[in-house]
Amino acid sequence: MEVTGDASADEPLMEVICPACGGIVEAIGAEELVAVATEHTRDVHGYDVPREHILNSARSID
Ligand SMILES: [Zn+2]
């Protein structure tokens, strides 16, 4: 069985802890993590977290 479109297959599961509420935000890959974390802080807390801050705080779950 051929595997196709596996560009995202090697993206790690990542998490970042929200500095405002301590909630854990999880996503596949850095780009998705930034998107989900940004949406969380914007919707729940009403402010934007810089992309750089998210990436600095993020860690991959292996
Ligand atoms: Zn939060």
The gist of it:
This protein is α+β, with helices and mostly antiparallel strands and 62 residues long. It contains 2 helices and 3 strands.
Give a description of the structure.
The chain is of the alpha+beta class and 62 residues long. The chain has a domain at 28-62. The protein is 37% helix and 21% strand. The protein contains two helices and three strands; from the N terminus they run ββααβ. It has a three-stranded antiparallel β-sheet, with helices on one face. The model has no long low-confidence stretch (mean pLDDT 90). Bound molecules: zinc ion. Zinc ion is lined by residues 18, 20-21, 23, 40, 44-45. Zinc ion binds next to helix 1.
Compounds present?
zinc ion
> What string gives the helices and strands in order?
EEHHE
Beta-strand percentage range? 15-25%
Classify the helix fraction into a percent range: 25-40%
Largest sheet: 3 strands, antiparallel
| Number of beta-strand segments | 3
Distance between the termini: 26 Å
Number of helices: 2
Average the pLDDT over all residues and give the rounded result: 90
Judged by helices, strands and strand pairing, the structural class is: alpha+beta
Overall geometry comes to: elongated
Round the Cα radius of gyration to an integer and report it.
Answer: 13 Å
Low-confidence stretches: none
Biggest β-sheet: strands ordered side by side in the sheet: 2-1-3
